[in-house]
Structures are given as structure tokens and as C-alpha cells.
Amino acid sequence: MAALDAWAAQQSDGPNRSEAIRRLVELGLKVRMPARPDTQPGRKLRAQELATKAIEKIIDPAAPPEERAQRTRRLTKGPLEFRDARVDRPKATGK
Predict the structure, then answer these.
(1) Three-state SS string across 29-47, please?
(2) Which of 4, 49, 55, 88 has the most CB atoms less than 10 A away?
(3) Whole-prediction pTM value?
């Protein structure tokens, strides 16, 4: 609250607390933050490799290779109903 009151006191028209909050929220909504760059590009690939290895350990070894590959693919991509909710993947154009 002290920081808010100090900011309001610095303004030329000296807004009250509620007006100061409104203005600060308005300013915050206008600011566009740059997209956070991926600091480690290989991180995503490494995570996928680790997930694949973990899945291969629990999949039935007696299953045919095609079925094992399909199960691995399905598990690394995630359930179909949750794919739209993922923020780290581009939106699907068609299902």
C-alpha cells in the first residue's frame, strides 16, 4: 500500500487510492512483454527422450513393435482431449 500511495503522490493530479489502482491496472494491461526466449533449445528434445525411455520400460514387451510405437507416440503427445489446453504446442488446425 505504501508503494501505491507513493506512486499516487508522484502524479501531477494526485489521484486517490482507487483511481491510482485503476490507472496502474490500465498501464499494466497496455504493456506487452516480449516472448521469453527458450534458453536451452535442446531441453524439449531431451525431455521427450527421457519420457520415451520411461514409457518403453513400462510398455508390455510382448506387444508388437507397431503397437508399442503407437502407445509411445500417444503417451508422449498426451490425450487428445487435453492437447488443445497445452500452451507449449501450436494449436491444431484439424483433428
Answers:
(1) HHCCCCCCCCCCCCHHHHH
(2) 55
(3) 0.38
Taking CA atoms, 32 is separated from 26, 29, 74, in Å, by 12, 8, 36
20: which 3 cell numbers?
A: 491510482
Interval 25-43: pLDDT, tens: 999 888 887 776 666 778 8
The angle formed by the CA atoms of residues 62, 50 and 45, to the nearest 5 degrees, is 125
The span from the CA of 71 to the CA of 58, in Å, is: 11
Mapped onto helix, strand or coil, the DSSP state of residue 13 is coil
Per-residue pLDDT of 55-91, as tens digits, reads 888 888 888 989 888 888 888 777 777 766 666 666 6
